[in-house]
Design a protein that fits this description.
229 residues, alpha+beta, OB fold (Dihydrolipoamide Acetyltransferase, E2P), 2 domains, two-stranded antiparallel sheet, elongated
Length: 229
């Protein structure tokens, strides 16, 4: 089965319902872009169900950091409808995978946490649709990226959430490494995190300080991404 052909067939089918198509257009465009990567990748699973799981777990969070929460949910819903379409087409709808059981609420949460972390690091991009940038924050963020603190230590890479501690911090462990970092966190923010979430971040700790802070966020992944990263 060729996933690209199935996506194209689904687009022609769903275009007949202009309202649903308007909600799913962004997700379908991303699926077309994902299929281009699929052609050249040796790491993306080839089976269409596993490939679509990879799309939601890894590809979208990696390539679309600035999605609004409702946009993220619509993308998960689009994948569910695509799977249902494929299975009905081949008379196997009784076995349709229900991706919304996991990605429905999880995508809402993951992109809410994504917004929280971007606020923590002072990301100046407020919105991509339409593009809105806080110019004052942009100058501060640019200066921070260009001039590292000589009195601080930095760690970057993929980190797993190990603990959410009531004392007001989350503990992160570096994947494929021994580093263990405690990151101070506002209590009204930290309970949106989940153990086993994965962050691609740069962390910073000032000399003589115990706690780390998140300096830069590249991507925030649900726990399902662990099997692919």
């Amino acid at each position: 089965m060729n996933l690209l052909n199935e996506v194209r067939d689904y687009i022609e089918y769903i275009k007949k319902n202009t309202y649903i198509f308007s909600l799913q257009k962004q997700g379908l465009e991303l699926l077309l872009g994902f299929n281009e990567d699929l052609k050249h990748s040796h790491t993306i699973p080839k089976g269409y169900v596993d490939a679509l799981d990879y799309f939601l777990a890894v590809w979208v969070p990696k390539h679309k950091k600035y999605l609004k929460v409702e946009e993220a949910f619509n993308i998960a819903y689009t994948v569910q409808d695509l799977l249902t379409f494929i299975h009905k087409k081949y008379n196997s709808e009784d076995n349709t995978p229900i991706v919304l059981d996991y990605y429905g609420e999880e995508y809402l949460r993951v992109y809410k946490v994504n917004e929280i972390v971007r606020k923590m690091v002072g990301d100046p991009i407020i919105s991509m649709t339409p593009t809105i940038i806080d110019l004052e924050s942009y100058r501060e963020y640019r200066d921070k990226q260009q001039h590292r603190d000589s009195m601080a230590m930095y760690e970057q890479g993929l980190f797993r959430v190990e603990e959410i501690n009531d004392e007001g911090y989350i503990a992160l462990s570096k994947i494929n490494g021994q580093k263990y970092c405690k990151v101070l966190m506002r209590r009204d923010w930290m309970y949106n995190f989940k153990v086993d979430d994965i962050l691609h971040v740069t962390l910073k700790r000032k000399i003589f300080f115990i706690y780390w802070e998140i300096e830069e966020l590249k991507a925030y992944y649900p726990s399902k991404a662990a099997q692919y990263l």
